[in-house]
Design brief:
The protein has 12 helices and 11 strands.
Amino acid sequence: MPDTVLVTGGTGYVAGWCIVSLLERGYDVRTTVRNLDRSAGVRAAIEHETSVGNSLSFVTADLGSDDGWDDAAAGCAYVLHVASPMSSSRDEQSVVGPAVEGVERVLRAARDAGARRVVYTSTCGAIYYGHPERAEPFDERDWTNVDAGGMSTYVKSKALAERAAWDFVERDGGSLEFTTVNPTGIFGPALSLESASSLRLIDRLLSGKPPICPDLWFSVVDVRDVADLHLRAMTDSAAAGERFIANSGPPISMLDIARTLRDELGDQASKVPTRKAPDWLVRFAGRFNNELGSLVPLLGHRRNASAAKAQRVLGWVSRPWQATVLDSARSLAALHRADGGSA
């Protein structure tokens, strides 16, 4: 019988590609949704990429409640904990608490179910914030200084949640193995319009909104490569107790992304802006818009992180960022056409 893997947050962007990768490799997959009404949409999106059959099942569980997690983890050999509470709120208590409590719920259920290993989807936001900029890339030995400021409440919540996860495993994990994957900015094709919300930067650039580009810099990694790293971290004995950065290379600017879209996609990218927005304008608009406000601390900053460890230890390889960005745009166009909207 194939091993069963629990993937949390089945409606999510990264979780969907993890499910695809697991099914393609012959695993049985169980995934959590907050409402079983969402399961048909998830199954349909996965079936566009790979055969599902009876190998995918759904359970109801929410990171904000204890209910459902024991049933979700029962009989699972591995857990990919991908789900995370998303919020643009600036209220730390409402964001940090659910993130920390949620990861502890999943770890407790995995331990009690006798799972071999949990792979947790953290972020490079838990690695390279709260430090002076430096020439050498950050790596897995680095930790975000959550007391230094200059980060959104979401980034702070992810950093604190990963710390809490490592503390839980050390204190109460028993024989449970634990590994984290720390991606940079995740792009690439979406499986559905719902998960395409993760690509709103690309979608907005294609629609010409905003008409100018803030001075933002991103390190980029493809969602398919992130899923591949999760599976490598799940089964390789060398991955136990380790963190792995997922990144395709040095940071690129929002303007670089915009120009690549314009250069390669022709009429489809005719509305993409090619001028940079002054920082003062973004700061002013951020006073009235939480999402823009969360970007203000990032203006002009270039944070680089090395994926050398994942490459060396697990043999992981990433796509070039240009291919990822273009695949993101083409995916969005196809999804909008299928939905009856404009490409």
